[in-house]
C-alpha cells in the first residue's frame, strides 16, 4: 500500500507519449458497439437513417472528441476539480424543481429552447470523481472507521434525495449503485453494507407508502405483468413476446414483427435490446453481451494497472457504472427487474446518456494513460 500513497513526483507526458499509451483496441471495441446501435436504430426506423441512426452516429463522433479530450487531459486537473465539479452538479440538481423542464409528469431537465440536459447525468460522473478524490488521501487504516465513512455517505445521499424529489426512482437507484460500488472498491467493510441492506428491508413498508402511484404500479406490474396487459403491463409483455419470438437465430435484420409493426414501445431507447434480440435471436443477443463483457474486462485490466488510488477508483467506478447500465437494461426488458427507464449504453438512442457514458469511458482511458502517476498534495494544490 505504500506504493499507492507514494510522494514521488509525477512524470509529465507529452501528446505523442499519450497516443502510444492510449488503449486503441478498447476504442475500436466501443466504436463497434456504437455501430451495432446505429444499425439497430436504422432497422427500428424501417430502413431510414432519420430520425435516429444518423443522429446517433453524429453524437458519437462528438462524444469521441470529448473522449480524446478527457483521455489526454492532465489527471491532476480532475483530482483538483473533483469537489467543485461535484458541488456544481449538486447545485444544478437543486435548481431542477424550480426552473427545470417538465416532461411526462416529471421535472428532470434543465434547458433553453430545444437544448436540454439532465443534471443527474452530470452528477453520475462528478460523484465518482469526488469519492475517488476522498479516498485518494484517506489512509488505509481509517477506511473502516465510522467517522471516515460519513463524508462519502453524505456525498451519495444528497443526489439520491434530490433524484427522489424529481421524482426519478431509477436515477436514485443508480446513484446508490454507483456510490455503493465505489465504497466497496475502496475497501469499506462488509459490515456497513449488511447494515444498509437490513435498514432498507426494514424501511420498505414506509417507502412503499411514499411511492407515487405510477411507481407502485411499476412494482406491481413487475410482479404480475398480466394484471393489466393493455396498460401498465403492456411494455414488458410485448418485450417478452419479441424476445421469445426471436428464437435461436432471430427473424432477420429488419424483419422483427413486434418492432416493425410498432407493437413494441420505446423500441429506439429503453427496449432496443428487445428489438435486437427479436431480429438477431439468442445468438445475436449473446454476441452483443459478449462485446459488453469484453469492454468490462478491458476496463478491469486498465484499473488494476493504476498505481494511485484516485486513478484506480476512477477507472473501476466508471466501469461499474457501465456494468450497472447494461445489467439493469437487460434485466428490465427481460422482466427480471421493474421498468425504470435505463438505456443500453452506446446502443440506445439518447444524447445526454451517450455523451456522459463516453466521458466516463474517457476517464477510464485517462486513468490508463496516467497509470504510473502518483500525487503529492503540494502538486495538486488542493482546494479543500
UniProtKB/TrEMBL annotation:
Pfam family membership, one: FTSW_RODA_SPOVE
Transmembrane regions listed in the UniProt entry: 20-45, 57-79, 85-101, 149-165, 172-204, 280-301, 322-340, 346-367
Membrane topology: Multi-pass membrane protein
Pathway stated in the Swiss-Prot or TrEMBL entry: Cell wall biogenesis; peptidoglycan biosynthesis
Main location: membrane
GO MF terms, alphabetically ordered: lipid-linked peptidoglycan transporter activity; peptidoglycan glycosyltransferase activity
The keyword Membrane is annotated on this UniProt entry: yes
Tagged with keyword Glycosyltransferase: yes
Gene Ontology biological-process entries: cell division; cell wall organization; peptidoglycan biosynthetic process; regulation of cell shape
Family matches, as InterPro entries: Cell_cycle_FtsW-rel_CS, FtsW/RodA, RodA/MrdB
Major enzyme class: transferase
Reactions listed under catalytic activity: [GlcNAc-(1->4)-Mur2Ac(oyl-L-Ala-gamma-D-Glu-L-Lys-D-Ala-D-Ala)](n)-di-trans,octa-cis-undecaprenyl diphosphate + beta-D-GlcNAc-(1->4)-Mur2Ac(oyl-L-Ala-gamma-D-Glu-L-Lys-D-Ala-D-Ala)-di-trans,octa-cis-undecaprenyl diphosphate = [GlcNAc-(1->4)-Mur2Ac(oyl-L-Ala-gamma-D-Glu-L-Lys-D-Ala-D-Ala)](n+1)-di-trans,octa-cis-undecaprenyl diphosphate + di-trans,octa-cis-undecaprenyl diphosphate + H(+)
GO-annotated cellular components: cell division site; plasma membrane
Domain of life per record: Bacteria
PROSITE patterns: FTSW_RODA_SPOVE
Keywords from the named record: Cell inner membrane, Cell membrane, Cell shape, Cell wall biogenesis/degradation, Glycosyltransferase, Membrane, Peptidoglycan synthesis, Transferase, Transmembrane, Transmembrane helix
Its biological purpose: Peptidoglycan polymerase that is essential for cell wall elongation.
Family label: Belongs to the SEDS family. MrdB/RodA subfamily.
Protein name: Peptidoglycan glycosyltransferase MrdB
Gene coding for it: mrdB
Amino acid at each position: 500500500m505504500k506504493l499507492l500513497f507514494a510522494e514521488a513526483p509525477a512524470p509529465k507526458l507529452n501528446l505523442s507519449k499519450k497516443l502510444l499509451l492510449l488503449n486503441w483496441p478498447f476504442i475500436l471495441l466501443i466504436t463497434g458497439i456504437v455501430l451495432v446501435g446505429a444499425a439497430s436504430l436504422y432497422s427500428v426506423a424501417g430502413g431510414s437513417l432519420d430520425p435516429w441512426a444518423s443522429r446517433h452516429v453524429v453524437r458519437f463522433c462528438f462524444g469521441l472528441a470529448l473522449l480524446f479530450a478527457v483521455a489526454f487531459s492532465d489527471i491532476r486537473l480532475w483530482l483538483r476539480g473533483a469537489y467543485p465539479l461535484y458541488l456544481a452538479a449538486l447545485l444544478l440538481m437543486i435548481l431542477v424543481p424550480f426552473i427545470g423542464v417538465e416532461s411526462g409528469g416529471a421535472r428532470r431537465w434543465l434547458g433553453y429552447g430545444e437544448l436540454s440536459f439532465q443534471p443527474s447525468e452530470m452528477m453520475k460522473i462528478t460523484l465518482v470523481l469526488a469519492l475517488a478524490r476522498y479516498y485518494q488521501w484517506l489512509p488505509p487504516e481509517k477506511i473502516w472507521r465510522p467517522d471516515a465513512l460519513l463524508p462519502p455517505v453524505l456525498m451519495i445521499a444528497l443526489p439520491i434525495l434530490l433524484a427522489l424529489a424529481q421524482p426519478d426512482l431509477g436515477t436514485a437507484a443508480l446513484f446508490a449503485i454507483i456510490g455503493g460500488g465505489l465504497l466497496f472498491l475502496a475497501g469499506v467493510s462488509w459490515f456497513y453494507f449488511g447494515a444498509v441492506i437490513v435498514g432498507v428491508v426494514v424501511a420498505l413498508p414506509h417507502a412503499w407508502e411514499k411511492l407515487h402511484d405510477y411507481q407502485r404500479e411499476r412494482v406491481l406490474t413487475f410482479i404480475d405483468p398480466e394484471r393489466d396487459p393493455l396498460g401498465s403491463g403492456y411494455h414488458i409483455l410485448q418485450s417478452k413476446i419479441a424476445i421469445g419470438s426471436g428464437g435461436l437465430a432471430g427473424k432477420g435484420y429488419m424483419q422483427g414483427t413486434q418492432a416493425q409493426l410498432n407493437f413494441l414501445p420505446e423500441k429506439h431507447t429503453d427496449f432496443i435490446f428487445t428489438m435486437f434480440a427479436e431480429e438477431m435471436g439468442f445468438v445475436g443477443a449473446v454476441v452483443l453481451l459478449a462485446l459488453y463483457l469484453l469492454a468490462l474486462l478491458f476496463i478491469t485490466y486498465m484499473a488494476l494497472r493504476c498505481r494511485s488510488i484516485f486513478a484506480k477508483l476512477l477507472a473501476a467506478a466508471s466501469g461499474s457504472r457501465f456494468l450497472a447500465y447494461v445489467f439493469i437494461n437487460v434485466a428490465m426488458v427481460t422482466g427480471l427487474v421493474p421498468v425504470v427507464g435505463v438505456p443500453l449504453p452506446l446502443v440506445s438512442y439518447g444524447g445526454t446518456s451517450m455523451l456522459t457514458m463516453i466521458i466516463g469511458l474517457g476517464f477510464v482511458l485517462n486513468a490508463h494513460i496516467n497509470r504510473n502517476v502518483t500525487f503529492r498534495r503540494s502538486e495538486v494544490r488542493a482546494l479543500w
